Automatic annotation (TrEMBL):
<dbReference type="GO" id="GO:0006508">
    <property type="term" value="P:proteolysis"/>
</dbReference>
<protein>
    <recommendedName>
        <fullName>Prohead serine protease domain-containing protein</fullName>
    </recommendedName>
</protein>
<dbReference type="InterPro" id="IPR006433">
    <property type="entry name" value="Prohead_protease"/>
</dbReference>
<keyword id="KW-1188">Viral release from host cell</keyword>
<keyword id="KW-0645">Protease</keyword>
<dbReference type="InterPro" id="IPR054613">
    <property type="entry name" value="Peptidase_S78_dom"/>
</dbReference>
<keyword id="KW-0378">Hydrolase</keyword>
<dbReference type="Pfam" id="PF04586">
    <property type="entry name" value="Peptidase_S78"/>
</dbReference>
<dbReference type="GO" id="GO:0008233">
    <property type="term" value="F:peptidase activity"/>
</dbReference>
<feature type="domain" description="Prohead serine protease">
    <location>
        <begin position="22"/>
        <end position="159"/>
    </location>
</feature>
């Protein structure tokens, strides 16, 4: 990926749902949750604001790839089937292809070894504090979403996996999601 693409991620709890379990669901990037970032030898606090992904979802939401560890040189694991902004952040659903790599990543997610989502993004609009110790991002061009080992945002969470036929979240799953997001 180009050098101006940055990555943000975070760990999460996980549950497995559905008959085929090939759809990964989660919060890709939380809104209004400051994170400590170290980038190019510079440390600062970063906050992604609600509305940051509106334009990129409209322009290319159906073409966002699902990767492992931001490795754009490897074949994708799958693609986004749903991206939307909600109160918690950028919510995504990703259909994982039935390939060796897809099967391996689903097994790692199921085992809890791979437990975070991360966005590969280009920052389009931002504001900085006068001392450049914090920035607020208001527009992002989303390049990809990855399942990753470690992350920056505690709210960028894999909420679970499910089959294509699952359409609703159970009350237990909703409660778990709220506990994860500290709402």
């Amino acid at each position: 990926m180009s050098s101006n693409i940055v990555h943000r991620a975070a760990p999460v709890d996980l549950e497995l749902r559905g008959s085929d379990g090939r759809t990964v669901v989660g919060i890709c990037a939380p809104f209004d949750q400051p994170a400590d970032i170290a980038e190019h030898g510079f440390r600062f606090t970063e906050t992604i604001r609600r509305g940051s992904f509106t334009k990129t979802i409209a322009e290319r939401g159906d073409r966002v790839k699902f990767l492992a560890q931001h490795d754009a040189r490897s074949m994708p694991l799958g693609r986004a089937t749903l991206l939307r902004e909600d109160a918690a952040g950028l919510y995504g659903e990703f259909r994982v292809s039935k390939t060796q790599a897809g099967d391996e990543v689903l097994e790692l997610i199921n085992d809890g070894a791979l437990d975070a989502l991360s966005v590969g993004m280009r920052v389009i609009a931002e504001t900085w504090t006068s001392n450049r110790s914090a920035r607020s991002i208001t527009e992002i061009a989303l390049a990809e979403v990855s399942a990753v080992n470690f992350g920056a945002y505690s709210g960028a969470v894999i909420l679970g996996t499910r089959s294509q036929s699952d359409n609703v979240i159970s009350p237990e799953q909703a409660a778990r999601r709220l506990r994860l997001l500290d709402l």
